[in-house]
Amino acid sequence: MQGKLSGEEHKKKKKKDLAISIDDDSLLLVACRIQASEPFKLGRSEFINGMKSLGIDSVKKLKAEISKWKSALTDKRHFKYFYWFAFDWTREENARVIQAESAVESWNVMLAPRCKSFPLALWNEYVTTVHKKAISKDAWKSLFDFIFSIAPDLSNYNEDEGWPVLMDEFVEWAKKEKRV
Amino acid sequence: MGVLLSQERRERKSRREKKKEKERGKMKKVPFGGGDGSITLGSRNLAAGEKGEKKGSLKLSIKPFLSSSLPRDFEEKCWGKLNNAVEAVHTKRKVGTSLQELYNLVQDLVVNKLGNNLYDKLEKVQGDRTAAVFKTLDGSNLKGREFLSQFNSAWDTLCCEAATIKNIFTSLDRSIKLTTTKRDVTDMSLFQFRVNLMSFTGLQHKLIDTVLQEIKAERDGVAVNRLLLKQLTSMLQAVSFYTAFEAPFLTGSKQYYVAESAKLLVLHDGPCIARYLHLISKRLEEEENRVLTYLSQVTRKPLITEVERNLIAVHSVTILTAGFSHLMSNMMLAELTLLHQHFSLPSVQKLDLLRDSLGAYIKKTGIEIMNGADTTIVQELLKFKANLDLVCSSCFSSQKEFTYTIRDSCEAFVNLNPSKPAQLLAKYIDTKMKPGGKETEDELEPHLDSCLDIFRMIQAKDVFEAFYNKDFAKRLLLARSASLDLEKSFISKLKAACGPSFTTKLEGMLKDMEVSKEVFSGYKPPTKSDISLVVQILTESHWPTYQSTQISLPPKMSEALEGFKSYYLGKYSGRKLTWQPCLCTCTVKATFGSTKKELIVSLLQALVLLLFNTEREASFSRIKEAVGTGDADLTRSVQALVFSQARVLKRRNKGGKDILDTDVFTVNEDFQHKHFRVKINGMQMKETAEEAKGTNDKVLTDRVHAVDACLVRTMKSRKSLVHSELISSVFTQLKFPVETADIKKRIEILIEREYFRRDDEQQNLYHYVA
């Protein structure tokens, strides 16, 4: 853990050192817990201070904490907060939106294992093939409530409840294409 | 003696008195005038012949002429005579005894308490007589009308006989009425008639069926004997048999009209329905007449109800679907009035169906009108609306519900296209306001009122405002209004319809024109200048936005303009003046060879022409350079100079309508025109399609801003609102049509821009971010 490294390099280093997988959201969790401020970056001082305040002083402990955090995610509130943080941390610098492809990647990592009833694949297909535009923060955040409240066949969707237009369009498309 | 007498007298008196009493007791008390006929006066019996018995009673008896008891065969004799008389009446022979005598006979019998016997005998004789008559009728072979005549005359005869007999037996009648509850003679006859009619069922049915056949024949157009029918129905009523006739009559009528309507409605097209409506009136009238002429008044209501139901109510849907459009499109007012009347009848009550048909027709026709050519839509619409109003007032008696239906249906189809009707209406009014129309001012006012009617139906009033204001500005600037009074009255009507905020700009423009004149009149230009300048000063906010193009003016022009500008700014410090070149018109004095002309052109065109003062020929790129601008307006201006009716410039090379940079132009030395002052499209009076689109786009942008402003305003005041409430609040505040989806999009954008945020827990709750 030397100095400020760019995301990728650092991830590699981390991987080597800590064998933290970057294919799941462990890295993200760490970033979240230490409240990393810039996307894809874990600043050195940030990291050190973060570890200090969390009381982690060894690799083993870090690993243990990570798995603790992972299990804490079963609590919806923690998960929601974590998910919201993910938007800020995985967007490109100075961007206010996330591109469709990266959004889909993040969703697959974060949401797929934890919400089985939602047709995430369908949603991802829609976002990448039909919508194609970047995802705004509002849409990202609303997706969380969306996936937990909607029925698997989208039958209980109510337009008048104030979902973002993206959800309206998704449901319309899914019904028209008879995918549900 | 005197003294003794008095005492004796007293004694004698008392003894006499006592004897009188005794005698009285002994005497038989007989009624006066009856019995043995003797009358006693006091106690004196004169007939006794006893002499000297001065103190006895005095009797006086009177004997009657006749014997005191009736002869035994009195009753029989009387009845014999009466019976003969009755028989004579029945057989129409002359009665032997006089009627007076007969009357007295009856009276005698009644007086002698033989009334009841008499009654019974009479009853039997009458009964037999009636039965005999009925038997004859029953055996009759006659049919149809002849049968009815026969029956009627039988009834007549019986009635006459009964009348005569009644006269004879009047006393019996009286006593019967007073003492018993038996029917009087007349009633008895009627009762017997009725009894016979009921027992001879074959005859009864024959009678009723024949009558019904006659009625059916009359409905089919055959002439019948109405008097006969009247007499028969009166007969039936008299004998309380009418209801037995009425029931099959009503059934028969119903069947008749069911059949007739089925036959006539087989065609299912417009003219067929029109004829059918007339037929209904005819039939209703006929039946009313029928009731008046030869039926009982009680039949009226059920009969008319049957007719109404079976001719109209049952077929109301068919009538409307097959015929309504035809009637409306051909403006068949008479038939429509009938239709309304018929559907308003108490047993029909199908006005709501009529209204629905009207609504559907209006929508369908309206949509066709709106799909027509742009140039004719407004006129067709005005005509259509005028027709609808006419139909409503003359055929539907201007009933409220019909007015509402018309209004709602018109609004429905007019607003299918969100902006076209508003745009076209504004254009139409523009043409009417300009001079050159065929109508006089007086004719125009009501015409504009009907235009306003259409305006009220349009939801996208802001589109109308944008186009109307633009055209109004042009009319004012180029003094192209036919009548300023007309313009002002129309503006006040718009104000009344939409509120003052709608017309502030229009009124501002009018005011500007007046003020500008005043201000300019105070300006004294320097006399040296050979350019005469007229300036109009406009308040920017009132007028539509115009493109401000940069052009390079020749020095003389810019001097003149600067002169005015300094004057004005001297007068009104703190104001900013911006010249609008695209609105300017110039009058250019030109010499073509030997002809002098004055050309009225736009500023751009003037600049182009001025160029040819110094250069013989110029290419388009040169022109562009000289004038200082290259936009489409310049192209259009040059096109007007080259291709319009008045060809001031000539193009040297061949080419199409487009102007290319390489095109070279010269002045047309052979320019001819019958007028000295030649007008060349000063400012484009006709709006190009681009301009129209521009206006429409501006309206849409303005709407977006209005939605945003409304959202922010609402959230600011309410701080937190649920999604559905926010949407409905915005809908009530906005004056133009807008979709929920559009509002949603704006909400998202405002969230993005951090005007609001979503609640962390509740998905559909928004909070205002201060």
Brief write-up:
Chain A is mainly alpha-helical and 180 residues long. Chain A is 60% helix and 0% strand.
Structure characterization notes:
The complex is a heterodimer of chains A (180) and B (770). With 180 residues, chain A is mostly helical. Chain A has nine helices and no strands. Chain A has helices at 7-18, 26-33, 44-54, 59-72, 76-90, 100-110, 120-131, 137-149, 165-176. Mean pLDDT of chain A is 76; it is low at 1-9. Chain B is mainly alpha-helical and 770 residues long. Chain B has helices at 2-26, 74-91, 99-111, 115-138, 144-168, 170-179, 185-199, 201-219, 226-238, 242-264, 270-294, 300-312, 316-329, 333-344, 351-370, 374-394, 400-414, 420-433, 441-457, 461-477, 484-498, 500-521, 555-571, 603-614, 620-627, 632-643, 689-718, 723-733, 740-752, and strands at residues 40-44, 58-59, 585-592, 595-602, 617-619, 649-651, 664-667, 677-679, 720-722, 756-758, 765-768. Classes of the chains: A mainly alpha (180), B mainly alpha (770).
Characteristic key phrases:
heterodimer, A: 180 residues, mainly alpha, elongated, B: mainly alpha, 3-stranded mixed sheet, 29 helices, 11 strands, 64% helix
User: Looking across the biggest beta sheet of chain B, what order are the strands in?
Assistant: 3-4-8
Biggest pleated sheet of chain B: 3 strands, mixed
Q: Classify the secondary structure makeup of chain B into a structural class.
A: mainly alpha
Radius of gyration of chain B: 56 Å
Give the C-alpha Rg of chain A.
18 Å
Map the helices and strands:
The complex is a heterodimer of chains A (180) and B (770).
Chain A: H1 7-18, H2 26-33, H3 44-54, H4 59-72, H5 76-90, H6 100-110, H7 120-131, H8 137-149, H9 165-176
Helix pairs in contact in A: 2-5, 5-6, 5-8, 6-7, 7-9
Chain B: H1 2-26, E1 40-44, E2 58-59, H2 74-91, H3 99-111, H4 115-138, H5 144-168, H6 170-179, H7 185-199, H8 201-219, H9 226-238, H10 242-264, H11 270-294, H12 300-312, H13 316-329, H14 333-344, H15 351-370, H16 374-394, H17 400-414, H18 420-433, H19 441-457, H20 461-477, H21 484-498, H22 500-521, H23 555-571, E3 585-592, E4 595-602, H24 603-614, E5 617-619, H25 620-627, H26 632-643, E6 649-651, E7 664-667, E8 677-679, H27 689-718, E9 720-722, H28 723-733, H29 740-752, E10 756-758, E11 765-768
Parallel strand pairs in B: 4-8
Antiparallel strand pairs in B: 1-2, 3-4, 5-7, 6-7, 9-11, 10-11
